[in-house]
Every structure is written in structure tokens, then in C-alpha cells.
Amino acid sequence: MSELALEPQPEAAHLDDTLFLACGLAWCAGAIDVAAAVSHFSGSALYAVTFMGLAAAQFLLGVAIYRQAGRRLLIFGACLSLAVALIWIASCTTGLPVGSSPWTAQPVGTGGFIAGADEFALALIVACQLGAGRAGALTRGVKRVLSVAGIFLILLSSLILTLGSSHVSLAGPIRMLCHLG
């Protein structure tokens, strides 16, 4: 009986889970923006089209990060995510100069809040990824915390989309958290 010669297996490429988290966060924010676009179709065509374009950009960003996470792409993605989150903050505080009610603050909805958190987490994950060469104990610790937060946000985003509550008010849960402290 002859023995089978085992061929040496090529070493598997190292994949960084934080890049998968960045993809997931981009896709979750995009999915929430699709839900926001659908809810704006009856009120503001401008907002509906803007949310659909933003969702497409976020989906494409997730695909691009998955396929080739180069430094320029990651920086672009982080800047896009921060810009979207800052525009959302402006829409909830001072209002935007466009739309049916210019300069009128919009209510903080659950979907918008979670999508903004997805955007900020994506930007922070990218910042840690780009600084990985200088990873000290603090950077590794922050990266682990961001990984857990990213997974939590992806799950929370999925739950929000499943329940269809993209515009539920956060006032009750925020008051409850304030009373716990």
C-alpha cells in the first residue's frame, strides 16, 4: 500500500477582521439610508434621491474596501463617513439650508442615530487601521474596543432595519439612561 504524499499547503493570507467590520458598517449605514429614502419619497424628492445616492455610495464603499483596502480608499471612506455623520448632526441641531423646512432641526430618529454611529465607528476603525504600524498597547486596546463596538452596531443596525423603526424617537431611552446614572 502506498502512502499519500501530502502537498504543503500555501500559507493563508492574513485577513484583518477590522476591514470586514468597516465593510459591514458601510453596508449597514447604506441600508438605513435606503429605509430613510423610502420614508422621504412622499415628502421630499430631494431628500429621497439624496439618501438613495448616499446609500449607493456606502454600498460601493463597502465593496471597494472588501476588494482592495488601499490607504487612499480608506482615507476617502473615513472622510465620507465623517462628512455624512456631521451633516446628520447639523440636520438635527441647526437644520440644513435645503429641503421643505430650511434651517429647521429634524427630530433625532433611531435609524439616523445608529447610522451616524456606524459612520463614526467606520472612521475610527479606519484611523486605527492606518495607524496599525505604530500599534502600541493603547492602540491595540482601542482597536479591540472598536471591534466590539462595530459588531454591536452591525447587530443593532440589523435589528433597527428588521423592526422597521428608522424614525422612532430616542427620547425615552435617553431619559431612562440619564436616570440610571
Summarize this entry quickly.
With 181 residues, this protein is mainly alpha-helical. Helices cover 71% and strands 0% of the residues. The mean pLDDT is 83.
Structure description:
- The protein is mainly α and 181 residues long.
- It contains six helices and no strands.
- The chain has helices at residues 17-40, 45-67, 71-93, 110-130, 137-163, 171-180.
- α1 packs antiparallel against α4, α3 packs antiparallel against α4 (110-130) and α4 (110-130) runs antiparallel to α5 (137-163).
- The longest helix has 27 residues, at 137-163.
- The relative contact order is 0.16.
- The model has no long low-confidence stretch (mean pLDDT 83).
Structural class category = mainly alpha
**Over all CA atoms, what is the radius of gyration?**
20 Å
Q: Tell the overall outline.
A: elongated
pLDDT averaged residue by residue: 83
Indicate the proportion of strand residues.
Answer: under 5%
Order of secondary-structure elements: HHHHHH
Uncertain runs: none
Count every beta strand, where a strand is a DSSP E run of 2 or more residues. 0
Alpha-carbon distance between the two ends: 73 Å
Search tags:
181 residues; mainly alpha
Chain-wise SSE layout:
Elements: H1 17-40, H2 45-67, H3 71-93, H4 110-130, H5 137-163, H6 171-180
